[in-house]
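S1.2 Input.
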Amino acid sequence: MNIISVITPLIIVALAGYISTKSQWLSKMQLDALTKFTFYISIPAFLFYQMAVANFSDQVSPQLFAAFYLSVLTVYLLTWLINYFFYHKDNTENINQKQHKNSAASAVFALGASYSNTIIVGLPVLLLAIGEQVVGIVFLIVTFHSAMIFTLTSVIATKHSSKTSSADKKAFNWLIIIKQTFNNPLIISILAGLLFNVLSIPIPNLIADSLILMGKPTITLALFILGASLAFYQVRDELKFIGIASIFKLVILPAFVFISSQYIFNLSSIVVTVLVILSACPTGVNAYLMAKAHNQHQETVAGTVVVSTLFSIITIPLWLTFIS
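S1.3 Output.
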């Protein structure tokens, strides 16, 4: 399997974005407008449609969920703790934005270390390695993975911002947390799509075609924005934590998934392969958009997406070889 042919176009699109802003052909204001369209229209359209039409009936398994999600939550917790206790950023101009023992920044960092690029990388790799029978499992994992980890990150980040912005911490209001969390267009689109799926609500052809059309540029736009944003960040200052996040993403998370799926839950060899490869995928671009939306760890998550994508050219084939 030629993993390079899957990864290389992703890098080229991100590089095009980087050159566009570094050369000042694309301004910061123009990039912000493009990001707004992507985050509020294109990605929600893509997520809603995929969630609404996905077929989960013959794929749902408690063991499958447990093997994957318990591993993801374990890595999320470990990386949250690492960032919370060991990350320092003393060169910030605004002391309120210092990220030492910052739960919001830790949540975003944990997202970057545990959220997989399952659609752009995982699905093509698994189709090449196994075949079309993996599609149902992939979308099952993709859908609930996004819903769980985006919601968790949004709740923690919103809770932190509500506490720090309030003069009286005792006046913390869960209603505000829920409201701000579900204002996130990614969360809304996923949950709305799930509702349509569960209730078997049909989507008119005209609307479905429109959603498909709006969702088509999602992957390209997200990668382009990621590369373009790197021109504005000092990623070299975050190399240590970019490395930590990448190691957790490419090595530790898939190791946890392999142990849980193979030895704890005794899943079939095909399911084990699918779960391990999905967990071994590089960090998903949407993690960066979440970091940007919460204004936390943009440099670290952007760097993690790039570094983990580059090194996944080596690690994914190694995992496939190891499993087989």
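S1.4 Remarks. Confidence is low (pLDDT under 50) at residues 91-97, 166-172.
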